[in-house]
Write a structure and sequence with these properties.
Number of domains: 3
Structural class: alpha/beta
Bound molecules: fructose -6-phosphate
Radius of gyration: 25 Å
Distance between the termini: 29 Å
CATH topology of the largest domain: Glutamine Phosphoribosylpyrophosphate, subunit 1, domain 1
Number of helices: 19
C-alpha cells in the first residue's frame, strides 16, 4: 500500500505534491520521490529511501527547477527493499517518462525479460519500473506530433496482471498527467483550473473538496482543460462525482473515526493482495520470495513457529494446517520463551518467524538463536526490508499495507493467509498434497475476501451487543480446534482495547477448572466449528455451550450459516459464512475484532493507542 499524488495546475507542483504526500504518509513511509515537468526541459526527479523528511532534505540541498505539473509517491515496499533505487518515480532510460505505482504487477518478471531482450536497462528490483519502459515504448510506437500518454497507458494496462494504480507524466506531453486503476484506489480532485490525482482525498482536501471516483479498469487524463476518463479500450467511461465533507484528519482515516476501524474494513482487500500472484501459469503454487531450496524443504522433519501476541495466535492456527496438510510435526512457541528452554533444533528444522512489524525483539532473538543452531528460518512479515526478514533465510511478505492502529487486525488475517500458503507449498514440494487438492484450497482461499466482506456487512448487531456489555466485569472466549486460537485472539483484543478481564479457553478444558468462573450473566463468546466435516468437534462444543448456559452464562455464539443445532442455546447468534474448517479463522476472527473495538469505544477508550502499549516492541 503506497501513497500517490499527481498535480496539474497553476501552483508550484512540488509544494502541492509534497504536502499531499505528507497526508498520505500513513500509507507507507519507507521511501518517497517526486517528478516535475520543467518548462521546455526534461523531467526533474528526486527520490530517497526513508521517510518523506529525507526527500525534503535532499530537495532543500539540491532544489529542482520549478514547474506546475508533477507526480509523487510515498512507498510501502513490496517488490524490492526500501532503497533509493527502488523508490518511485521510476523512469525509462531517457527519463522521458516517470511513473509511480501502488499495487503488485503479477506478470512483471515476464515483462522485464521481454524489455531486457529489447535492450532496456532496468535499474531497480521493483515491478513498477517495467511500466515506465513499456510506456516509453508505446509512446514511440504511437508516433505522431504530440505524445498521447493516455493511449500509451491504456495499451500498457491491457498487458498488466495484478492490482495497480499508476500515475505517469511524460516530458513530451506538457501539462498532462495520466492515471490508471485496477483493484487499487485512485481519486481525482477537481479545483478551479487545477486537478489532482491521489490514492485518497486526504492528499488534496486542503485545495478542493470536489472529487471524482474512478471505476475499475479506467484511465484518466488530467490537463488544465479538464479531465477525460476512459476504460482500458479507450471508450468513454462513467464516473461518480462527489463532495467530500470530512475534515483533513478524518480524510486520512478514510472517513473512519479510528485507524483500527479502517484497518478492519480493509481486510477483504488485504487478504486478496496477500493471495495475489501466488499461482503460476500451470496452476502451481509459487512463493517467489521464498528462497529456501525445495530439496531443503523436502528434508525438513520439524517446523517450529515463533511469534508474539496476535502473530503467535496466527502461528497456533498454522500448526493445524501444517500438520494436516504436510504431516510434519509442528511446534508453536511464544518467542520470548523459546531460546530460554534450550529448544532442540538442527539443519532439518524449519523455523517460521511471524511478525507484522518485522522488528519485534523477542521474535528476532528467537530467530537468531534458531539460526545459530543450524535451523533454516522463514519470516512471514508485513514490513518489507525490516530486521526480521533481513536476518532470515527467506521471507514471505503479507501485503496488508501499513497497520497504524496498535491492535493488530488486517495483519493477523494476512498472516493466516501466508501460513496457509506456506503449509500448501510444503505439501506441494514434499508431495503430501496433490496439485488439484492444493488448487482447491487456493480456490477456497480466493473466496475469503468476499466472505470477510459479508461478515463486515452484518456487524451492526455485534456492535450493539458490544455497547450493551460495556459494564461487564469480564468476558470469556471458548473454541475448539482452530477456534481455540481464535478465542485467544478475541480475548487478547478485548484485554488490550477495553482493559477488561478476558480469557480464551479450549472449550474442552473448561470442565477442568475455568468453569468455576461462570456466574449469572457472564458473557461467554463461543466459536463453533462447522457441523460439516468434523461433526464430532461441533457436537462437543454444542454440549459445552449447554454446560455454561445451565450455569447462567450469557452465550454469544459465533456459528456458520445454516448451523441450526446451536440456535436453542444462543442468547446472541453471530452468523459467519460457510468455510472449510481450517479456513474458518479468516471469518470467525472478524466479529471478535469488531466486538472489542466497539466495546472499548463505548468505554471511552482511545482504540488506536491503548494504554501501556506500543505498535512495535523492540525490547525483550
Ligand atoms: C495485538 C498486537 C500484538 C502484536 C505483537 C507482535 O493486537 O498487535 O500482540 O501482535 O506485539 O508484533 P509483530 O507482529 O509486529 O511482531
Amino acid at each position: 500500500m503506497c501513497g500517490i499524488v499527481g498535480y496539474v495546475g497553476g501552483q508550484p507542483a512540488l509544494d502541492v505534491v509534497l504536502s499531499g504526500l505528507k497526508r498520505l504518509e500513513y500509507r507507507g513511509y519507507d521511501s518517497a520521490g517526486v517528478a516535475v515537468q520543467t518548462p521546455d526541459g526534461p523531467l526533474a526527479t528526486e527520490k530517497r529511501a526513508g521517510k518523506l523528511a529525507n526527500l525534503e532534505k535532499a530537495l532543500a540541498e539540491n532544489p529542482l527547477p520549478g514547474g506546475t505539473v508533477g507526480i509523487g509517491h510515498t512507498r510501502w515496499a513490496t517488490h524490492g527493499g526500501p532503497t533509493d533505487a527502488n523508490a518511485h518515480p521510476h523512469t525509462d532510460n531517457a527519463t522521458e517518462v516517470a511513473v509511480v505505482h501502488n499495487g503488485i504487477i503479477e506478470n512483471f518478471a515476464a515483462l522485464r525479460a521481454e524489455l531486457a531482450e529489447r535492450g532496456h536497462v532496468l535499474k531497480s528490483e521493483t515491478d513498477t519500473e517495467v511500466v515506465a519502459h513499456l510506456l516509453a515504448d508505446e509512446v514511440r510506437e504511437l508516433g505522431g506530433d504530440t505524445v498521447d500518454l493516455a493511449e500509451a497507458m491504456r495499451r500498457v494496462c491491457r498487458r498488466l496482471d495484478g492490482a495497480f494504480t499508476l500515475v505517469a507524466t511524460h516530458a513530451g506531453a506538457p501539462g498532462v498527467v495520466v492515471g490508471a486503476r485496477r483493484n487499487s484506489p485512485l481519486v481525482v480532485g477537481r479545483g478551479a483550473g487545477e486537478y489532482f490525482l491521489a490514492s485518497d482525498v486526504a492528499a488534496f482536501i486542503a485545495h478542493t473538496r470536489e472529487a471524482i471516483e474512478l471505476g475499475q479498469d479506467q484511465v484518466v487524463e488530467l490537463s488544465r482543460d479538464g479531465v477525460t476518463v476512459t476504460d482500458f479500450l479507450g471508450r468513454p467511461a462513467d464516473v461518480r462525482e462527489y463532495h467530500v465533507d470530512w475534515d483533513a484528519s478524518a480524510a486520512e482515516k478514510g472517513g473512519y473515526d479510528y485507524f483500527m476501524l479502517k484497518e478492519i474494513a480493509e481486510q477483504p482487500r488485504a487478504v486478496a493482495d496477500t493471495l495475489l500472484g501466488r499461482i503460476d501459469g500451470e496452476g502451481r503454487l509459487t512463493l517467489d520470495e521464498v528462497r529456501i531450496d525445495d530439496q531443503v524443504l523436502r528434508e525438513v522433519d520439524k517446523v517450529v513457529i515463533v511469534a508474539c501476541g496476535t502473530a503467535y495466535h496466527a502461528g497456533l492456527i498454522a500448526k493445524y494446517a501444517i500438520e494436516h496438510w504436510t504431516r510434519i510435526p509442528c511446534e508453536v512457541e511464544v518467542a520470548s520463551e523459546f531460546r530460554y528452554r534450550d529448544p532442540i533444533m538442527d539443519q532439518q528444522t524449519l523455523v517460521i518467524a511471524i511478525s507484522q512489524s518485522g522488528e519485534t525483539m523477542d521474535t528476532l532473538m528467537a530467530l537468531r538463536h534458531a539460526r545459530e543452531q543450524g535451523a533454516k528460518v522463514l519470516a512471514i512479515c508485513n514490513t518489507n526490508g525490516s530486521t526480521i526478514p533481513r536476518e532470515s533465510d527467506a521471507v514471505l511478505y503479507t501485503h496488508a499495507g501499513p497497520e497504524v492502529a496498535v491492535a493488530s487486525t488486517k495483519a493477523f488475517l494476512t498472516q493466516l493467509v501466508a501460513c496457509y500458503l506456506v503449509a500448501l507449498y510444503l505439501g506441494q514440494v514434499r508431495g503430501t498434497k496433490w496439485g488439484d487438492e492444493i488448487f482447491e484450497v487456493i480456490r477456497q482461499l480466493a473466496d475469503a475476501p468476499k466472505q470477510v466482506e459479508q461478515v463486515l456487512e452484518t456487524m451492526e448487531p455485534v456492535r450493539e451487543l458490544a455497547r450493551s456489555l460495556a459494564d461487564a466485569s469480564a468476558v470469556l472466549f471458548l473454541g475448539r480446534h482452530v477456534g481455540f486460537p481464535v478465542a485467544l485472539e478475541g480475548a487478547l483484543k478485548l484485554k488490550e482495547l477495553a482493559y477488561m478481564h478476558a480469557e480464551g479457553f479450549a472449550a474442552g478444558e473448561l470442565k477442568h477448572g475455568p468453569i468455576a468462573l461462570i456466574e449469572q450473566d457472564l458473557p461467554v463468546v463461543v466459536v463453533v466449528p462447522s457441523p460439516r466435516g468434523r461433526s464430532v468437534l461441533h457436537d462437543k462444543i454444542v454440549s459445552n455451550i449447554q454446560e455454561i448456559r445451565a450455569r447462567g452464562a450469557k452465550t454469544i455464539v459465533v456459528a456458520e450459516e445454516g448451523d441450526e443445532a446451536v440456535v436453542p442455546y444462543a442468547d446472541h447468534l453471530v452468523r459467519i459464512p460457510v468455510t472449510p474448517t481450517l479456513l474458518q479463522p479468516l471469518v470467525a476472527t472478524v466479529p471478535l475484532q469488531v466486538f472489542a473495538c466497539e466495546l472499548a469505544t463505548a468505554k471511552g477508550h482511545e482504540v488506536d493507542q491503548p494504554r501501556n502499549l506500543a505498535k512495535s516492541v523492540t525490547v525483550e
